[in-house]
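Deliverable D5.2: sample structural annotation.
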Amino acid sequence: MKEYILIFRHEDGSKIASPEQMQIWMKQTMDWIGGIAAKNQFVAGTGLPFDDAKVVWHNNVVTNGPFGEIKETIGGYIIVKANSVEEAVEFAKGSPVLQGDGNSVEVRQIGHKTEGVN
């Protein structure tokens, strides 16, 4: 099996959910991840908090972030084991992140060697 990262993108990271909405979303997320783990295909994952986040730009300019002028943010990721990108996409389709209008889950293979890189 190969490893794939599922990156959770939020179209507007400035929208903050109510504590009740966050509890519901977290339960749905834990249930979703639990289903992947039950198949022994969950590797790792985490949310990415916005507190104390910084962005380093060209010429070493540092801004508070991750928001800046853009609204899209990365809210977290998980790593799964799958036989193909299509299987990893099927996992991504179950993500509660997709309940948010404009949100997406990016799927990329990781852990493979690139020529010339050790």
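Annotation notes: The domain at 2-110 is CATH 3.30.70.1060 (Alpha-Beta Plaits). The longest strand covers residues 73-82.
The annotation will be released with the project's public dataset once the embargo ends.
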